[in-house]
Amino acid sequence: MDILHHLLMVYAVYVVGTASPGPSNMTIMAVAMQYGRRPALTLAAGVMTGSLSWAALAATGLSAVLATYAEALLVIKICGGLYLLYLAFKSGRAALRGRAKAAIDAPNAALYRRGLFMHLSNPKAIMSWLAVMSLGLQPDSAGFVLPAILAGCATLGVLIFGGYAVLFSTAPMARAYAKARRWIEGTLALCFGYAGLRLLLSRG
Fold first, then answer.
1. CA 202, CA 180: separation in Å to the nearest integer?
2. How many domains are contained in the chain?
3. Enclosing domain of residue 123
4. CB 3.0-4.6 Å disulfide test: which of 5, 126, 185, 186 passes with 94?
């Protein structure tokens, strides 16, 4: 019973970190509203792959690597910050366009890579997984705890990212996007720009 309670705490921490607004979730929402369910799910699959990649590294001692090689985290922050500024530029340009594109201009592979790189270059994702693993794995943890953490969080991640893709690709959301496209893209540009600058200017 104690192990179950402990795992539920781990899952709760993961849900809070994953479902909270961030670049990945906001991009999934925007793609879903503008282009539909399949592109959004493809992007979400890339995000989820990136998340599981960080999970695997966190489980194999990423915290020790980052503690020894602090410049590794600095490189990730710089790459992530520049990528977010690039997304801010794209969203800002889309906000200034007179009319939305009728169809998506990127193939599924490009959307998948976009989601993957976005999450791999997101220090928030790294820190979230380090927090999850630090909370979930104790020196005396049973052998099944790590697989339970990975499987449970993977399931929750699919539900969260996939849920955003499905929810925001509905007809009412698409109509809302069509009416407020410039405001939505402008807001995304501001959020991405703020997040990118915050990463680049952070000292930690």
1. 33
2. 1
3. 2-201
4. 185
